[in-house]
Amino acid sequence: MKRNWHISLVLVYLVLGLLLATSFNTQQKYQQALNAPRKEDLIRKVRQLETDRDALKKQIETDRAQIQNYEKIAAKNEGMLSAYTNELEQTRKATGLVPATGRGVIVTLADSPQYPKDGDPNNYVIHDYDLRTVVNSLWSGGAQAVSVNGQRLMSLSSIRCAGGTVLVNSTRLVSPFKIQAVGDSEKLAKALNADEKSRQLLNEIADYYGLVKKIEQRDDIVIPAYKGGLLIENAKVVEGGD
Amino acid sequence: MLPLIGLLAGIALGLVLNIPIPPVYSKYLGIAVLAALDSAIGGLRASLEMKFNDKLFFTGFFSNTLLAAFIVFLGDRLGIDLYLAAVVAFGVRLFQNLALVRRHYFQKRHWE
């Protein structure tokens, strides 16, 4: 009997001790939480920021590695790139999208200052077909860039009649007309006489009607770039074709 | 002597286990502590008076704790600090029992 109550008492005291310790712990935690909510908050914020910072650092690292990777690829492709750049430059020159300079000829044509003495007064002025004749003979002489009154001729250019004016690259031009061509100036000068129509125009017709003409070979010809639009909607590139 | 060892063992166990109790239930814990304390002192008194009854002691401990817990729960539900009733009841009994234990020791010495 005596042992029995001892055991039960011990058990109750054990439970009491357990409860006391647990209560003490809980209260301690509760007090800490009450006293330092701001501190905990700040600590949490700092931790959060530190985590963010580490993540960003890692991001920078990977980004830098990526850039380096790209640079390596770029270096590898540089040879190809310079080839492409050259081709592009060449294409630009050929299409007239960049100014051209060099030696060549300047052909100046202007309406006749004479009063029409006979026949059609149209014979005393320079027409679009006269300009076409001269330009075509220059092309045939190996001209690499041609302009009429500063209008660069390119693949979409035309020289047309528009009433009293001549239309080139959608721009109205009037006499005098200054045709510039870059190329071998000797060959160009020869080509102007080699072509039959051109020879007739520049010699016989011009002389007969008193048209103003001047042909000069120069070393410092500057032909401006084509400045118009390049709207090519209907012409499609032929895939894989030449 | 043995009850003291039990108390120390319980405290050590509680500190080591460090059972996490949500702050919401801290009130229940406090009442449980009071009930256990009351039973412990009451048991001490009964044993000193040679009136200790195992079954009475055990059922008393659990019924007191459960009733106290229920009162706290009810108080929470009704929005009244009913747990104060348990606290007061246990507190009064605690002091009463302590006084009796004290008296018992003095009487014992007196008899000698």
TrEMBL record, chain A:
What Pfam families does this protein's entry cite?
DUF881
Q: Where are the transmembrane segments?
A: none
Record's family?
Belongs to the UPF0749 family.
Look up the coiled coil feature and give its residue ranges.
Answer: 39-73
InterPro entries linked to this entry:
DUF881
Gene3D superfamilies in the cross-refs:
Protein of unknown function DUF881
Question: What are the entry keywords?
Answer: Coiled coil
| Protein name, UniProt field | DUF881 domain-containing protein
Q: Source organism's superkingdom?
A: Bacteria
UniProtKB/TrEMBL annotation, chain B:
The record ties this protein, via Pfam families, to:
DUF1290
So which domain of life are we looking at? Answer: Bacteria
What residues form the membrane-spanning segments?
A: 56-74, 80-101
An example GO CC term for this entry is: plasma membrane
Its main localization is: membrane
Q: Where in the cell is it found?
A: Cell membrane
Q: Which UniProt keywords apply?
A: Cell membrane, Membrane, Transmembrane, Transmembrane helix
Topology versus the membrane: Multi-pass membrane protein
InterPro entries recorded for this chain? Answer: DUF1290
The family this protein is said to belong to: Belongs to the sbp family.
The protein's name: DUF1290 domain-containing protein
Name the species this protein comes from.
Answer: Candidatus Aquicultor primus
